[in-house]
Amino acid sequence: MARVDRGVSTAVGYVLNLGIATLLVTGLLVAGSGLVADQRERAAGAELDVIGNRIAADLETADRLVRNGNGSVTVRTSLPNTVAGSSYRVAIESTGGNATVIVSTNDPSLARTVPVVNETPIRPTTVSGGSIVVRGNQTGLEVTDG
Questions:
Q1: Which of 72, 79, 131, 142 has a CB 3.0–4.6 Å from the CB of 123, allowing a cystine?
Q2: pLDDT digits (tens, 9 = 90+) for 23-43
Q3: Is 139 exposed, middle or buried (0-12, 13-18, 19+ CB in 10 A)?
Q4: Residue 87 · residue 105 · CB < 8 Å
Q5: Angle at 22 (CA atoms; ends 16, 24), nearest 5 degrees
Q6: Residue 1 lies in a domain
Q7: How far, in Å, CA of 84 to CA of 91, rounded?
């Protein structure tokens, strides 16, 4: 009688090929998901840096205008509502005449701090992301939601 186990090798080869392909695809998906999370965090950090610098520049502009005797000043800025798909907060801190802009988000948990060069006092405050307004006069500057 002849041996009839030749058909088994085809089925075993097919199962092995499926197993190897599944492992490769799973490995690529796991590696890719970590890469996407890292890229999202880097993009969010870069956006926070840009937003912080824009707000600091607006505060410095308002400070210069007030010091040059323009009386009352209003500077409006339109910023994105979200950073990398999540909302963010802008905190203005002022201690001893030095002000800083802190832009932060919770998802991913990031914060960026930008110093502000100013002579006019800036009222400490926290506003949500999006459009903001810097108002000021000789007594001080204030940042509010726009």
A1: 142
A2: 999 988 887 777 777 788 888
A3: exposed
A4: yes
A5: 105
A6: no
A7: 19
The number of folded domains in the chain is: 1
What CA–CA distance (Å, rounded) separates 15 from 2?
A: 25
Q: How far apart (Å, rounded) are the C-alpha atoms in residues 129 and 79?
A: 7
Reported confidence tier of residue 146, pLDDT bands at 50, 70, 90 = confident
Identify any residues that bridge with 116 across adjacent strands, giving them in sequence order: 99
Which residue is associated with the tokens 């832009």? Answer: 103
Full domain range(s) for residue 89: 8-145
Is residue 58 included in any domain, yes or no? yes
CA 115, CA 99: separation in Å to the nearest integer? 6
Peptide bond into 108 cis (omega under 30): yes
Is residue 3 domain-resident?
no
- Tell me the H-state helices in 1-98: 6-67
